[in-house]
Amino acid sequence: MTDPIDVDSLPPTQYLMLEVLAARHRLGEALWTFPSGPAYRKAADYLAQLGLVGWKSGVAPKTIQVWFTDVGRAAALDGDYLSPHDKQIRMARAEVAEDIGDAILTHFAPDNRTARQAARIARHHATAYNKPAEAARA
After folding, report:
1. Whole-angstrom distance, CA of residue 34 vs CA of residue 131
2. Buried b (16+ CB within 10 A) or exposed e, 8-19
3. What's the rounded mean pLDDT across residues 100-116?
4. What is the side-by-side strand order in the sheet with 31-35?
5. Which of 10, 76, 126, 129 is 20 to 30 A from 88 via CA?
6. pTM over 0.85
C-alpha cells in the first residue's frame, strides 16, 4: 500500500486545483471546468498520475473537466465536513426525533415500558444526528 499523499506539499497550481475541486464538491458539483492552458493540463495530468483526479477535454472550447477520484476525495476533504444544507437536514432530523420521543412519553403513560424504550430510541437518534459525520457513520 502506498503512503498517503500530502496535498499541502503539492506545487501551487496543483494545490489550487484540488482546493477548487474540494470547494465545488462541498457545493455538490461532481466535476469542475478549468481553462485548457498548458499549466492546467500539466497540473491535471500530474494529479491524475498520483491517482487524485480524473480529467478529460471540456465541453466548451479550450477547457478541461477535472473530478476527484476516491483517493483524491479522501486526501483533499476533511471527513467531518458537512455542507450547510446537510447541517440543516441533520438538525431538522434531530428535532423531529426529539419531538417523537416527547410525543411518545406524553401520549403513553410514563410507566409504560414500551413507551419508555421507544422514547429512548428516538432520543438516541436525536443525539446521533448531532455527532460529526465520521462518528455518525461508525
Report:
1. 36
2. eebeebbbebbe
3. 73
4. 31-35, 63-68, 53-57
5. 76
6. no
